[in-house]
Design brief:
The protein is of the alpha+beta class. The protein is about 60% helix and about 10% strand. The chain has a four-stranded antiparallel beta sheet with strand order 3-4-5-6, with helices on one face. It has a two-stranded antiparallel sheet with strand order 1-2. Helix 2 runs antiparallel to helix 3 and helix 7 runs antiparallel to helix 10. It starts with a helix and ends in an 11-residue tail after the last strand. The model has no long low-confidence stretch (mean pLDDT about 75).
Length: about 375
């Protein structure tokens, strides 16, 4: 039943990840179930006729993959990926676990008694096992670190069962390694059968690992549901920003006496921070009759915040154009209104006043220079 559930979760996780590659948690879930399923089918369920040395040699690299996939899955589900120190330690312990567990598996392929080095081989095996077993306690550290944060119910379930699973799988191994010297029986006690169901014995490790699988399924479902909700919120924000941008960017250009005008607007992303305005000036403003003001610029950043900044600029620009047509005064007025309101951002801007007789007055605030007859 567990193998069938893991196969189903593996298939669904991989298909959903293939559909949306940004959901990395689904990829780690699929890889975790793959290693679990492969270990179970190869070494237990299919009753493969393997010698102990060969089975142990294969088991070690598979255990490495199982450990690594579980660690990174916990980083996603327990929301620890933003902690750079935790990420560095995780990557370092992955290599420690990989090197020493493979080295330990390599010692199982040979019959060292033939070469008369049984004792050194056993000592090497004990050293390798001790090192990677200590490294395998890392999920417990991850759980302890995650508990400091405010966890919701799915993450609490993952944290609790990950903690219990590591305790019931790693601690007995560590205790049994030294049982010949200490004669402790705690490790054997943790392997005692609690009950039997349909011929399957359930001990603490089996219950904990089964609970961990179910908790991971619950956690991944909750994580994906929240991710979809966040994406829908972002899409709605982008839609609102696009609608706002369509209002602010002129669809129909006013006629300018003495000039033919056309425009093109192609943002690099869904919502850009570029803007332009073409404002015919009345004779009552400081300009001549038939003068026009062209202002264009680029707000740093993208999305709804950039669109809101553009709306502030356009509103301020329209207000300033009612009292002055001087490009330098226009830019100075925009600077006064924007200073301290961009949260560290900036807006290069260019203002040009065109008169019907072809004369031009220009002011530039950090914007790329315009071109006249293909010359800057």
């Amino acid at each position: 039943a567990i193998d069938s559930l893991e196969a189903l979760v593996l298939l669904l996780s991989f298909l959903f990840w293939w559909r949306d590659r940004s959901q990395r948690v689904l990829l780690w879930t699929a890889l975790y179930c793959l290693t679990q399923l492969f270990l179970a089918l190869l070494l237990t369920t299919l009753h493969t006729p393997l010698s102990f040395r060969f089975a142990q040699g294969i088991d070690e690299p598979l255990q490495v993959l199982q450990d690594v996939t579980l660690w990174f899955l916990l980083l996603w589900l327990l929301d620890l990926r933003s902690n750079e120190r935790v990420m560095r330690w995780t990557r370092a312990l992955v290599w420690v676990n990989f090197v020493f567990q493979l080295a330990d598996g390599a010692t199982c392929f040979l019959d060292w008694s033939r070469y008369g080095v049984t004792v050194p081989a056993q000592m090497a095996d004990a050293i390798f096992t001790t090192i990677y077993t200590v490294a395998e306690l890392w999920p417990i550290v991850l759980v302890i670190l995650a508990v400091r944060n405010r966890l919701d119910r799915p993450r609490w379930a993952v944290a609790i069962f990950a903690f219990l699973s590591e305790l019931t799988n790693i601690i007995p191994v560590m205790l049994e390694q030294g049982s010949r010297f200490t004669h402790w029986t705690i490790g054997q006690t943790l392997h005692l059968t609690f009950f039997t169901l349909a011929g399957t014995a359930f001990d603490a490790a089996t219950l904990a690992s089964t609970g961990l699988l179910l908790a991971i399924i619950y956690g991944v479902f909750s994580y994906s549901r929240d991710a979809i909700a966040r994406r829908q919120l972002i899409e709605q924000e982008l839609k609102s920003a696009q609608e706002l941008q369509q209002v602010l960017i002129p669809e129909h250009l006013p006629s300018l006496p003495g000039f033919a005008v056309t425009s093109g607007y192609s943002p690099a992303q869904e919502v850009g921070g570029d803007f332009f305005q073409i404002i015919p000036l009345e004779e009552t403003s400081a300009g001549k009759a038939g003068s026009s003001l062209i202002v264009l610029g680029d707000v740093s950043g993208k999305g709804l915040r950039a669109a809101m900044t553009v709306s502030l600029i356009v509103g301020s620009l329209r207000t300033l154009a009612e009292t002055t047509s001087d490009p330098a005064e226009i830019l100075a007025g925009l600077n006064r209104r924007l200073c301290g309101r961009l949260h560290g951002g900036f807006t290069p801007c260019l203002a040009v006043k065109l008169d019907a007789d072809g004369s031009c007055t220009l002011a530039n605030a950090g914007h790329p220079s315009p071109f006249l007859n293909r010359q800057a």
